[in-house]
Amino acid sequence: MATQRMLQFVTKSKQMPSKRAADERREDFAEIYREFAAEKAEEQASRCSQCGVPYCQTHCPLHNNIPDWLMLTATGRLREAYELSQATNTFPEICGRICPQDRLCEGNCVIEQSGHGTVTIGAVEKYITDTAWENGWVQPGKPMVERDQSVAIIGAGPGGLAAADNLRRAGVQVTVYDRYDRAGGLLTYGIPGFKLEKPVVMRRIEQLEAAGVQFVLNCTVGQDISFDAIRGKHDAVLIATGVYKSRDLEGPGAELGGIVKALDYLTASNRKSFGDEVPNFDSGLLNAEGKRVVVIGGGDTAMDCVRTAVRQGATSVKLLYRRDRDNMPGSQREVQNAEEEGVDFVWLTAPAGFEGEDSASGVVVQKMRLGTPDASGRRSPELIEGADYLEPADLVIKALGFEPEALPTLWGVPELTVTRWGTIRCDHATHATSLPGVYAVGDIVRGASLVVWAIRDGREAAESILSYLAQPASVAAE
Length: 478
Description:
Layout: H1 2-5, H2 22-25, H3 38-45, H4 55-58, H5 66-74, H6 78-88, H7 92-98, H8 110-113, H9 121-134, E1 150-154, H10 158-169, E2 173-177, H11 186-189, H12 198-210, E3 214-216, H13 227-233, E4 236-239, E5 245-246, E6 259-261, H14 262-273, H15 279-282, E7 292-296, H16 300-311, E8 316-321, H17 332-340, E9 344-347, E10 349-356, E11 360-373, E12 379-383, E13 389-392, E14 395-398, E15 402-403, H18 407-411, E16 438-440, H19 443-446, H20 451-469, H21 473-476
Helix pairs in contact: 3-5, 3-9, 5-6, 6-9, 7-9, 10-20, 14-16
Pfam families: Fer4_20, Pyr_redox_2
Keywords: 4Fe-4S, Iron, Iron-sulfur, Metal-binding, Oxidoreductase
Protein name: Dihydropyrimidine dehydrogenase
């Protein structure tokens, strides 16, 4: 019976949940996609071909059992679908909202490759878990038996929270240390509400607290507490700090006012959504209202900045990117959404400097062309001599990516080894670092990457830590 409900891609076309009109969504920070109705979710799930080699699953970093929970959704067995989804993914409702499905599961769907249009996996995943929350199926992961061992997690982003969940379910006492006043990391302060509404993140953190995870917030390791003190208090430590050091711009005028970091800008906007007092926003420094905004960069952070500026009431929003549309790292779905909302993408351009007196009034823009491919296979941009022009700007946002902080120096632990890029060096199978009982996950190991990879790392590291804690003390100390 179940198989008769599947393989409907020949007669049923691909449909995404409807989007709110661009003019409407420019006015607020609410999520732009509407919910699937039950019938539509079942219909779209039934398009799955149930192929023998599910590329959607193999190209998902978490290897979610996508075909099976699509079949369960198509047959109305939503609670089972949720439980199967949750079994491999700590935060399926978050991944359903912010994963770049067009580059991962949906982009590798077999029926997409055959020209029938992908199964809308992300939208169904979001529907399944939102339904689970509405029906009370999502419960704190309280352990059956408590252990007297404790683990410290430094960083309350997705990698750290995923590890905390798995460790707590196993009965380990878990304390999460984070420099911010709310847990969630970039889920809370980096990603705008129109992609991920903040109550979605906060309810997961509340569940972790209900399960017994302890959060020590407003705590900067190396200042408020030493790394050695944390190691002394706990049986194992997981480093999940992420990477927050912004790459900078060079060139004449780079020190002018009105040139700001993407993370500072996004954090200010998200804090306002919580009702916080944000002096740099209220003063206008980190507020795009009434300004000509230029964003420099081509990743998902740049997409977040341009779409935030639109909602803040910027008079114009332009994005400069040194490659073309096909070679940008950001999600193509995000580019389309931004264009609908009025963002102007200026491809094959890069800043050469800035003009202004105390504050920037314009960006000196160099025009580029694509040359030979670089080491990653992408065509390298080349400067077109004599094609510079001035782009007027009142606010310039730098979204050039992030680099790791020098943790061994900041924390006074030179024996914690790092790579030549400054990321923590660890065993990629176990996530063990050069220090006994210390593990590391997420962007501080990978460099700036996707939330879904951090979740995978956190879950894997939790298993390694449980194995470490199970060893005799003499073996663990070696």
